Amino acid sequence: MKHVLLLVAAVMTAWTAAPAAAADDAPLFRCAARAPDVCRFRIFYTRGDRIVVLLPGMQQNVPGVTVGSDTYCVAVNANPTWDCKRKQVGATNS
């Protein structure tokens, strides 16, 4: 019985540790604006897009973004438009 509990604990630890490692691989987006402004990032995926809003001085890993292939635009206090000048996502973006 003791071995079964240890096996279950080991499996649960390995299962819950894997998603945390994936979040660390997500690119980091930073907002360099000053208060009371906010940064709005529009991230363009292969299919669709997403808006991420960051407060001044905030930095956030954004999961689900592919470094090197997805693109983004950033604007202050407004959503970036569809025809914005897109930049390729790197390991850190601001």
Give structural notes.
- The protein has 94 residues and is an alpha+beta fold.
- It has one domain (26-93).
- Helix content is 24%, strand content 30%.
- It is built from 1 helix and 7 strands, in the order αβββββββ.
- The chain has one helix at residues 2-24, and strands at residues 28-30, 39-44, 49-54, 59-61, 71-76, 87-88, 92-93.
- The protein has a 4-stranded antiparallel beta sheet with strand order 3-2-5-6, with no helix packed on it. Strands 4-1-7 form a 3-stranded mixed beta sheet, with no helix packed on it.
- A hairpin with a 4-residue loop joins strand 2 (39-44) and strand 3 (49-54).
- The protein is globular.
- The N and C termini lie far apart (53 Å).
- 13% of the residues are buried.
**Main beta sheet: strand number and arrangement?**
4 strands, antiparallel
Shape estimate: globular
DSSP strand count = 7
The value of Rg in angstroms is 18 Å
* Widest β-sheet, arrangement of strands: 3-2-5-6
* Count of folded domains: 1
Which structural class should the secondary elements be placed in? Answer: alpha+beta
Mean pLDDT: 80
What is the ordering of alpha helices and beta strands? HEEEEEEE
How much of the sequence lies in strands comes to 25-35%
Oligomer: single chain
Which spans of ≥5 residues are poorly predicted at pLDDT below 50?
1-22
Count of alpha/pi helices: 1
Helix content: 10-25%
Give a quick summary of the entry.
Helix content is 24%, strand content 30%. By secondary structure, it is an alpha+beta fold.
SSE layout:
Layout: H1 2-24, E1 28-30, E2 39-44, E3 49-54, E4 59-61, E5 71-76, E6 87-88, E7 92-93
Parallel strand pairs: 1-7
Antiparallel strand pairs: 1-4, 2-3, 2-5, 5-6
